[in-house]
Design goal:
alpha+beta, about 50% helix, two-stranded antiparallel sheet, elongated
Amino acid sequence: MEQLLHYVWKHKLWPLRPMETTDGRMVEIIDPGLYNRRDAGPDFFNAKVRIGGTLWVGNVEIHDRASDWYQHGHDRDAAYDNVVLHVVGVADSDVMNSRGEYLPQLVLQVPASVSENYEELLHSDQYPPCYRIIPDLPQLLVHSWMAALQTERLEQKTVAIGERAQRCNGSWEDAYFMTLARNFGFGINGEAFEQWAQQVPLSAVGKHRDDLFQVEAIFMGQAGLLDLQAVPERYQTDAMNDGYFTRLRNEYLYLAHKFSMKPMNFATWRFLRLRPQNFPHIRIAQLAQLYYDRKSGLSELLECKTVEAVQQLLSTHVTPYWETHYVFGAESPKSTKHLSRSSLNLLTINTAVPMLFAVGRHRQKEELCDRAFDFLEQLKAEQNHIVRMWKECGLEAASAGDSQALIQLKREYCDKRDCLRCRFGYEYLRRNHVVTK
C-alpha cells in the first residue's frame, strides 16, 4: 500500500475534490518534490505545499499508517525535522518530530482504478503482466526507457567491477581478470570462475608467464582440478597413467609450495547438463592461452577502438593437450576448440563493454563510456529466453544494447513485480486510469 501511495504522490494523481489535513486545514500541492531513491532520509525533497493559506517548502514523508512514523524512529531522527507534511493511507496517530513539534498530516486516497490496475499487475498469471499495452506504446517512450535501462544495467555492472577492485586492493587490472574469468563461466559456472580468479595470484603467475605449461599448472591447480578426486571415477585410472596430468600436477605442487598457494574446492564446479566445450577444464585452458599470449590485460582492452579489435583480442584456443581431451584421462576426437563467434559476442557484451564503461567512470574519461555504448549498438542482440519472451509481446531487440535493456527490465522490474518504478507499468496504470475516469 505504501508503494502505491508513493506512486500516486509522485505522479500527481490527486483526487478531484479539495484535500485537507487531519485537523481541517486546506491543502494545495504545488510541487510534490524530488523522489529520494536512497534508503536514508525523507521520501520526497523540496516539496512545495500550501497548508491553511501558508506556503511551505520542505520534505514529505509517506507511510501506510501514521504510526509507522514512530516504528521507523523518525521522531528521534533530526533528519526528519524538516518534513512539512506527513502523507498517510490511515491516520491512526498524531506524529511529532525530534523537536516535539506536531506535523500536519494528509490522508491520501488512492484512485480506485489505479488500485485495481495495480492489483492486476501484481497478480496477473500472464508474464509480463503489462503485455497487453506493449504493442501500443509510443516508440519515443519505448526508446527512452530502453536507453535508461541500458545505462542502469551498465551502472549496476560498474558497481560490481568496483567491488572486485576493492577486493583486489584497488587493482583494476586484477578486477578485469576476475570479470573476464567470471564471464568465461558463461552463466552456470560464473560464480565459480570468479572465486577461482580471486585465488589465482597474478603476481606469482606473472613470474612464469613465458612458460605456458607453468601458467596452465597454476590455473588448473588453483581450480582444484589437479586433485585426482576431481577426475570422474571412470577416468581416474587413465588419469593416473596420463603423463600430462602427472607432470602438470607435480609442477603445480612445486609452484604451490613456492608461492604458498591453496587450491579451491573442486566440488564448486558444476558439470550437470554442461556441454563438453563449456567444461571448466576447456575454459581454463583457453584462459591460460589468453594470458600466455598477453591478451588478458586491461591496457590491451582499453586500446581497442572497434568491436573487431576487441574480439580479436579475446580470441583464443585451448592448449595442445585439450585439443583431444575434455577432462583428464579421457580422450576425444581432435578439435582446436576456439571460442565461437557467439561466445566472443557474449564476452564483448558482458566483459569488454562494462569494463570500458566502469574505467571511463572511474577515470572520468567520457570517450570510454561512449565507446561502450557504441559497441552495444554495433553488436547483434543476444538470443535467449528473455529476448524471445519480449519479442512475443511485441518488443523486439535490434541490438545488444536493446537485449541488455530487456534483460535488465525483466530481472530488476518484472521478476520483482516492481511495476511502480517501470515506465511501462506507469503507462499501464495511467492509461487505464484515464479510460475508467
